Amino acid sequence: MVPRPRAISRDEFIRAFRLCKPLVPWPETIAIGNSGGPDSTALLFLTRRYLSENAHVPSLPRRVVSLHVNHGLQEASDDMAQRCMKTAKALGVEHHNFKIPWSSENYPGIPEEGAVEDTARKARFRMLFEGMTKTNANVLALGHHANDQVETALMRIMKGSTADGASGMKHCRRWGMNFGYFGTGGPMDYEGMRRWIIRPLLTFPKDRLLATCEEEGLPYVTDLSNFQPEVTLRNAIRKWLANNGKQDESDQVYLNVDILKKKLEDLDMGINVSAGTASLYPAISALALRADDVDHEVDFILSRNTIRAPPSTYLITHRMLQSIENPEVQRTIVLRTLRYASFHPWGSLAAQVNRRANSIFQIVEKIWNVNPLAANIRPFCAGGGVLWSPVIIKGDTFRFVNPGSGVHEQEKFGWLASRQNPPKHGPMAEVGDKDRLRVNITPRIVSRLEAGFSSMFEILYDNRFLITVNLSEIPSRIKEGIKNGGSEIWLVPQTRWFWPKIVMKAPGIPDELILHTAAQSPRKLVNFPNIDANEFDKWQKIYWRPYEKEVVASWIDVNFERPLTRL
Asked: Where does the tRNA(Ile)-lysidine/2-thiocytidine synthase N-terminal domain start and stop, copy by copy (predicted)?
């Protein structure tokens, strides 16, 4: 007789909650993404009970808010929203309902068949972000559980991320890592990098959550569309798992089981689903642990092979690359470097060549298997907005490779990853990168000055550099010039690395007045857990000889803001 699943105990949840603590102090307010289902309902109850029973413990969150996003895509959507509100109020939790304003406020239109899952997901998280802003919450807790981890891993495997598997499901992740920057200010908004997503229930299977709701008498709703395989790939996988690996012919529109079985065999983990799906759960857990081990190894490699390079670029020697033979480690180094140097939102799939196996393989082949003495080595791009340039390194300096120049004594061959040059032709040359790299920030500054703000004003430039303007320290002549509408402050690109330069344009003066050109990489970006604090200094002392003397404004600070570490 199979024993009935147990409800999640207090001690179990305490351990799980502590496991997903962000790398910053707990905020005052924590938000729970509440869909009304058993997962989020159990999470809402467990979180509220834990925090209320430990109100005397310092440093824990003091306030819990429930956030529900109504897609309006089902007939029962409004009813589900009302039931979420009733459950939250019954638990004594502040609740907020948000309805997605399709086709307005810069939201897309109602998604059509084939794009429902991705469009709804992005809209849901943007709305959750806005809800966090309105409730002053910097942490969002989601009810993902062990079964979700298996579904997510299988989805990624089906979409081509065979070696990636379950690596995406972490207990705690920075918002920007999962979703890029979804603040209301778009790509110029830095708030996304301050937000954290936690998943306290990731180690618990679905039946333990259902048992918790049953034992505590918690009402929940069931989203029937979750079991319609014709809607999304995830739903097809969910039904296939629930049916223990059996599938109707009508379900094969989204899920080709033969392809999935082949990709599972490629993992070389002894997974055989011919007799059922039970072997998947321990295998996916082992896959997640293996991915975590690879991440730790890559942390160690990157932290111990530091070469100074201009801010926003990453420099690595060919000799170091040659010492790495594990294909998973090679692949992870490439993805970590892409995410670091790309101009796409940090952590987004676009910044990681959409995790396309062919693109990643192409990069690995080019930078690992090159002959440093060859005469035809050229820079290349393989996606992600990153340019890979062959360089010759000597001490703290490097030079770009000239065809046939070779490597001299005491020199090393290496690769420099940097932001890809904006395209000279095509639609992006006319609109995208032009708007991205030349930005008039005058309206943003003036609106804050007129509202009486005197604190720091932050702008994220090109998804890479955080520009901080001290509003109280702006020189009076500049302040008067921009408030009167005559002058403008712009961000424009400089150097081959496309760093931001802050300039002022004044009427009747053809030349721009340069206000600030200096850029640096802050220490926190390389906070590897396995190196000593005094070793951080070598990341700060970045060698770079500007084309001209740097201009520094005391009221402006420019820092490269993309972590090389996992979070």
From this structure: 30-239
